Amino acid sequence: MSEPAAIQYRPLRAPREHGATLIEPPLEQLPHLLRRNRMLLAARHGEMLGLGLAAAARQARRELIEQALAYTRAYRDVTVPTSGDAPLLLTGHQPELYHPGVWFKNFALSASARRLDAHAIHLLIDNDAVSAPAIRVPVGSPERPRVERVALDAASPEVPYEERSILSSDLFSSFGSRIRARLSDSIARPVVDSLWPLARSAASRTGRLGLAVSQARHRLEGEWGLMTCELPLSVVCQGAVFRHFAAHLLAELPRFREAYNESLREYRRVHRLRSRTHPVPELAVRDGWLESPFWIWSSEHPQRRRLHIQRHPQRLAVSDLAHVFHEFHWKSDGNAADLVAQMDELERRGVRLRPRALITTMFARLFLGDVFFHGIGGAKYDQLTDVIIARFFGIEPPAFVVLTATAQLFPVPTNRAQSELLRIRQTLRDLRFNPQRHLPRNEQAESLIAEKLRWLHDPPVNDRRLRHRMIERINADLQPHVSVEAQRLTAEQERIELARNSQHIAGSREYSFCLHPTDALRSFLLDI
Q1: DSSP for 368-435?
Q2: Which of 11, 52, 263, 332 is buried deepest, with most CB atoms within 10 A?
Q3: What integer best gives the mean pLDDT of the chain?
Q4: What is the pLDDT of residue 142?
Q5: Which residues pair with 52 in a beta bridge?
Q6: Is the pLDDT of residue 59 over 50?
Q7: 1 band by pLDDT with thresholds 50, 70 and 90
Q8: CA angle at residue 113 from 516 to 193, to 5 degrees?
């Protein structure tokens, strides 16, 4: 068994400047990364309930390519490599209207796949939950901007995307026109103009919020020349290899919990985190039930809850400790295929077993793809995943790529507002505590200054409290002499803070890609 990888703090930061990118390692190194990960896969030892890890990866990839092609070709054309040994590049995200920095991953994925003659697949993480789908839109004047939330659909109790139907067809259909009515006239041909007719078409086919949004975005990518496939994670989770993987983690949960929690504590030490919930909470024990790294819910109760298990000599009990309870017939030396078949039956009865965040990328990186393209958030968390993989599976984790980009809706130049504010605040403080440094020469002021200097350097009595009170009184008496300058600086501080707030709203990188001008965003993403 290999030694657990040591967690090292990686200062990953999204670039602030419009047009800047973060790509680590550079994509020129991707062929080397790919070869290294493939060598690790070929040398991979160990097994999951009788299924070898390397064999499981080969089977999972065949299934993934077949399923992704079938899913994608149902709504758009796509071509893929004909070689049976073509590399497989992966990324993934929730089916949302995310910002251009997230969308950039899809462009890098497609371009890299073309260069390497590889498969490129984007996983739709549809086990994530949604309640009030909306995006933030900047409105108002450039001098006094504000942010409004514009809804895609009616609000509902929080449910996973794979369970979320479109509740208000009128609200969904009118989203594009409502966005357009709020956007500044300076944004020419926003992406939403071409995206939303595609979304309405997808909504009529699927009736699902996440599928409508993601299929519209994917069709638009096809029109822009991207050549990738997509597949909901919910489909992947119904495959034989994922079931085998889940069964293995549940059967070995005591050992997995130890590796998971120990790695999490190390991550918090390295990153100096005191919170017990960041980046994720530890896997707990509740009344004899062991918490697992999976979600579970049923069609009757679609709110996802944490899956807990109890192991018994002849069975494996699973429950959300609220609505779902089921017992698998299982012995520690039993047939894994039988347990997988029971999981299939549970799915047919409307009970969903889905991975939580770290387990999603763990499975994707170990079994589905050769290289995973991460955003900054996922990359930070997967430093933790790497150590869990090493501790539990005893193998070296495959490397991944981290990338994001910054595209501002209203590009704003960098300025010196922060340093100017610091200078003003320091001066205002000095006007309060050392007004004598800023006074014009006059007889009354000079008398007060002389008195203050005596109390500072040669006090008549050795009484610290009295000395402090006298200096405070003199500073107060001197304030009228510096009030004009204090008022000027305060007004300047308010002006800069207002401008900075407006700039922060206007220059945010977090606005949805659908708000951006089509020509500028398309050129930006395709060029980089």
Answers
A1: I-SEEEE-HHHHHHHHHHHHHHHHHH-SPPPP-EEEEE---SS-----SHHHHHHHHHHHHHHHHH-G
A2: 263
A3: 91
A4: 64
A5: 47
A6: yes
A7: very low
A8: 20
